[in-house]
């Protein structure tokens, strides 16, 4: 009985555990201080009312024989897939309802999609990176190459023609750097993928935060239907982190190595997944209704205003950052060439503000720091004032 | 860019598609006939009232900032894991709340658990078999060996000391054969696994249908904590096929090949899964409440009575079968040495009753047929009367 030895190659990531440990130790030692957490990667605002009503109605359906629902379709109910297709249409992207798979979240799909690919593929990720892309491929035994996101490219890595890759993970707007690709940049990735016969796995979980004229889907780019799969989620769009629903788009014409990718993923899902809960699919469909869109946009605007408040303080202080616009994340360069953890300690001890050290997301994160906009407005304002005070004193 | 070529080794199973095609053709040709489906593998009774109320309350929690829930724990909320642990205790099995992983269903866990095992393991399944065990291991490239369930062993295969296996899938009460292992039989499997340093993956999805003095968990057997993982589901227990919730139990002391299995699975789930929806976990916990147990048992009794009605007709007719007791399935030998599809056609054309040909579940299913108890009482009675009439005429 042999274990998958690739698990031995996983590097334990204690980032959030260490953040929690240091934070809790500080709070225990200073019970009188009010510590504000701007490191939080989870949403805090409640679900939109119309979404909750739809979920309750879905629950009520299950209480009566006439409306009871058994096993759902593996790919999701048609009414939800059609609503997602219409949503894409609302920003000018054509995706068929029959190209959509509904799932319990983008993380599951990002991780499980590897099942359909050979282990003999080279995987490219941008660094800093959302750890799931790396760890799920280490588990599968694949070779991983890194494209550096850094100040020179605005933390939005572009392809290197000299690097060969078969599977490319892109996340835009990016977690953790908040940077978002424009159409021209994305086109270089699509061209690179087509030239290399590669597939792009495009994580668009933060597309709802885009405010400027930037692509909200890889399928806004010419050629993408021949080289890309897109994963999206309602977690940040509509506060579904605890409700669990996402979706993956696979163009019907996408083929590789003699296989139709849609059909292959369908076979995988039919074998190892049994669809998404009925009340959750009802709730998800309500997100895409006219009223639902109006209500979720209020929440998104709230987070966006938090991000703007943080970003303008950094502007005032003259600190380099990416994100803040088009993203709930603000990725900043630690002042005075401080290391990520050095800056973490400074903010915790002097401003009583908690953020996330960038080096936890990859080597290009060293010397950087992530703040998020998912907190309270009042706390965000107070945290920013404290940060400004500490950093102003620092530069004196 | 290479596809996982193991997908080429999957054998397309058109069983249910072919059943639907033949049934629909018959209905189209005979619009006046009332066709009754006893092939259905999905539940039909609504959720218990207390479960629906808990789900609605969970949905309402998400509507307010004070009670909102974000990312759930990967392994499930403690209150639900404790409720499951207490449920085990109610039939005399000690399983810690900290040994339980809550998931979106047993099928996901049965399929995904393979991630933590090397592809160089030999997998043993009993035949006839639930196709997920086979297909998920073909996708992973593992060698599969089959243990024959047949009339000689009451469709409850026992280990063959001459066969070497590393991973053993057992399902009891069994889908599709309805047979259930007794403690002595399960002990032979546990002993075999311990001797071979193998792991048993025990699917107990139908344990709630057990009425006789039979083990409801592999962990009722001495030694199982050193060689077994158990997967269970609320799909058939509480009508959760459309609600989606299951659980997997991994004893903390289970080790193989230098790895702790609980820790390895936790790492897999933390990387590729984001937990189960809050309202669904609330609903699941209600299943295990005193009132919930009372209410779900009414539904189970309803199905059990259907099974009894089918089984006693077969007794009258002198037809060999397994299941019917301790299981929602009745697995019968086609009379007059008919083939599975021959018998299917006879029942469809002469009795207007639809069942499932056994050969779709593996070679030992040839000449057998599956009926299920998940239909209406009235229809079940009518179907049974028609079957009796057709088979009585046949033997004349």
From TrEMBL, chains A, B:
Positions of the Aminotransferase class I/classII large domain: 33-387
Binding residues annotated for pyridoxal 5'-phosphate, in chain numbering: 71, 106-107, 130, 175, 206, 233-235, 244, 274
Binding sites annotated in the UniProt record for substrate: 14, 41, 107, 130, 175, 274, 370
Cofactors required: pyridoxal 5'-phosphate
Modified residues (N6-(pyridoxal phosphate)lysine): 236
E.C. no: 2.6.1.83
Domain of life: Bacteria
GO BP of this protein: lysine biosynthetic process via diaminopimelate, diaminopimelate-aminotransferase pathway
Catalytic activity: (2S,6S)-2,6-diaminopimelate + 2-oxoglutarate = (S)-2,3,4,5-tetrahydrodipicolinate + L-glutamate + H2O + H(+)
Pathway entry: Amino-acid biosynthesis; L-lysine biosynthesis via DAP pathway; LL-2,6-diaminopimelate from (S)-tetrahydrodipicolinate (aminotransferase route): step 1/1
Gene3D superfamilies: Aspartate Aminotransferase, domain 1 (3.90.1150.10), Type I PLP-dependent aspartate aminotransferase-like (Major domain) (3.40.640.10)
PANTHER family reported for this sequence: AMINOTRANSFERASE (PTHR43144)
Task of the protein: Involved in the synthesis of meso-diaminopimelate (m-DAP or DL-DAP), required for both lysine and peptidoglycan biosynthesis. Catalyzes the direct conversion of tetrahydrodipicolinate to LL-diaminopimelate.
Quaternary structure annotation from Swiss-Prot or TrEMBL: Homodimer.
Protein name according to UniProt: LL-diaminopimelate aminotransferase
Taxonomic source organism: Ruminococcus bromii
Higher taxonomy: Bacteria, Bacillati, Bacillota, Clostridia, Eubacteriales
């Amino acid at each position: 009985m042999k274990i998958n030895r690739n698990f031995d190659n996983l590097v334990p990531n204690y980032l959030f555990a260490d953040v929690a440990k240091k934070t809790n130790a500080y709070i225990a030692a200073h019970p009188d201080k009010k510590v504000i957490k701007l490191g939080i990667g989870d949403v805090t605002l409640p679900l939109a009312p119309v979404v909750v009503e739809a979920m309750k109605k879905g629950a009520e359906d299950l209480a009566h024989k006439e409306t009871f629902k058994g096993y759902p379709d593996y790919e999701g109910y048609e009414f939800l897939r059609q609503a997602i297709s219409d949503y894409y249409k609302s920003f000018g992207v054509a995706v068929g309802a029959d190209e959509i798979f509904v799932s319990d979240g983008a993380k599951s799909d990002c991780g499980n999609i590897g099942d359909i690919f050979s282990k003999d593929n080279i995987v490219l990720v941008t660094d800093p990176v959302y750890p799931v892309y790396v760890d799920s491929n280490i588990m599968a035994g694949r070779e991983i190459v890194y494209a550096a996101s850094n100040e020179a490219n605005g933390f939005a890595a572009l392809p290197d023609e000299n690097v060969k890759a078969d599977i490319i993970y892109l996340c835009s707007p990016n977690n953790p750097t908040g940077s978002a690709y424009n159409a021209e940049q994305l086109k270089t990735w699509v061209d690179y993928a087509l030239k290399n016969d590669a597939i792009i796995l495009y994580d668009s979980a933060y597309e709802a935060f885009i405010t400027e004229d930037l692509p909200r889907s890889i399928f806004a780019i010419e050629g993408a239907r021949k080289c890309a799969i897109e994963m999206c989620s309602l977690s940040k769009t509509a506060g579904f982190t605890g409700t669990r629903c996402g979706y993956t788009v696979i163009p019907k014409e996408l083929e590789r190595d003699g296989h139709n990718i849609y059909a292959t993923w369908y076979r995988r899902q039919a074998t190892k997944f049994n669809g998404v809960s009925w009340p959750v699919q009802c709730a998800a469909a309500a997100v895409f209704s006219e009223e639902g869109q109006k209500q979720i946009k209020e929440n998104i605007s709230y987070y966006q205003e938090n991000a703007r408040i943080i970003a303008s303080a950094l502007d005032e202080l003259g600190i380099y950052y990416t994100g803040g616009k088009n993203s709930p994340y603000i990725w900043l360069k630690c002042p005075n060439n401080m290391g990520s953890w050095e800056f973490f300690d400074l903010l915790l001890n002097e401003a009583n503000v908690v953020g996330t050290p960038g080096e936890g997301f990859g080597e290009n994160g060293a010397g950087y720091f992530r703040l998020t906009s998912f907190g309270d407005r009042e706390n965000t304002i107070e945290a920013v004032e404290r940060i400004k005070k500490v950093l102003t004193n620092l530069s004196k």
